[in-house]
């Protein structure tokens, strides 16, 4: 159901050209959204999607997160890696960080956020102990906390997707 | 407004160039992934922002609504780029580690140590 609504809205957004939308486009959007949600259901019946993701408060929090702490970290980390490209100074290693997130959606959000901020790259995840293995380009401690690598990201992931 | 678009394009180009240069500067697949997947994403964010600014200025100068559509399409493309880039980099790194490619010059490799003590893959 979440997939149905999301894909229908995305299609209508893509064909919208500033004016009104033809009824034929709405029919096409509903048909294709139905097809996509059936295919997704057959492919993986236990998708980690929940109806609470359409909760507007969570969506607003997601947008705030995207343009607030995430963008700041993205800019800082990109400048950092850009300097490393020029100077060639690296100290890499793969570290293990505990996340403490229960839902798969939140863990995916956190893993993708970590990968997108340069300097850290999620290599693997342990589903049982909820830990992430992160390739870190500048290792400073042997046993880092989640906050050493990605700041307040786990807190945000919990508030958005759990 | 043309100056703003030019500055955005310049910053985007700079980061894209740095991302490509990192292919030559870094020693192994993981560090190269850092440079190529993310500096280029950041650069593409800026070039896309230039397109969005262009579309919106054209719209407010009184041209028709297709310029808003252009901006909207670029924003959707950026969203898709962010999701697919992170997932793709994660997939490449995981596959590389599973095929036994170890990070060069690494201080330590917690994942390989854990797999050895557990005697199996972690996921």
- The global form of chain A is elongated
Largest interface: A-B, 41 and 49 residues
Element order, helices and strands of chain A?
HHHHEHEEHH
What is the domain total for the residues of chain B?
A: 1
- Measured between the Cα atoms of the first and last residue of chain B, the distance is 50 Å
Describe the structure.
The complex is a heterodimer of chains A (162) and B (123). Chain A has helices spanning 2-15, 23-43, 56-67, 69-87, 104-116, 146-150, 153-161; strands spanning 93-98, 120-126, 131-136. Chain A has 162 residues and is mostly helical. Chain A folds into 2 domains: 2-47, no CATH class; 56-161, no CATH class. With 123 residues, chain B is mainly α. In chain B, 80% of the residues lie in helices and 0% in strands. Chain B has 4 helices and no strands. Chain B has helices spanning 2-25, 29-60, 66-98, 110-118. The longest helix of chain B is centred in the middle third of the chain and has 33 residues, at 66-98. At the A-B interface, helix 1, helix 4, strand 1, helix 5 and strand 2 of A face helix 1, helix 2, helix 3 and helix 4 of B.
Quick recap of the structure?
Chain A has about 160 residues and is mainly alpha-helical.
Keywords for this entry:
heterodimer, A: 162 residues, mainly alpha, 2 domains, 3-stranded antiparallel beta sheet, 7 helices, B: 123 residues
Task: Record the SSE blueprint.
The complex is a heterodimer of chains A (162) and B (123).
Chain A (H helix, E strand, L loop, with lengths): L1 H14 L7 H21 L12 H12 L1 H19 L5 E6 L5 H13 L3 E7 L4 E6 L9 H5 L2 H9 L1
Antiparallel strand pairs in A: 1-3, 2-3
Chain B lengths: L1 H24 L3 H32 L5 H33 L11 H9 L5
